[in-house]
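Continuing the batch. This is chain 6 of the set; chains 1 through 5 are on the previous pages. Same settings as before, nothing changed between runs. Recording input and output for traceability.
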Amino acid sequence: MKTILIVDDQMEVRTLVDVTLRIGDYRILQAASGDEALEIARREKPDLILLDVMMPNSSLDGFEVCRRLK
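Output for chain 6:
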C-alpha cells in the first residue's frame, strides 16, 4: 500500500483531500504545519507528499519544507 502525506494548515483542505484519496488503496497521513510534516516525512517515508506552499500559520512554508526534505 502506498503512503501519501497531506500537508496543509487548513483542516478542511486536509479532510477533503483525505476523503478523496481514500477511495483508492492508500495509507493517508496528515500534517498541519511544516515542522510536523518534516517529522512525519522523516519517520514514515511517504511515497508522495501533497504540500501547501503558503502556510501563514506555520513557522515553515512549503518551499522551506521542500528544501529541508531534499
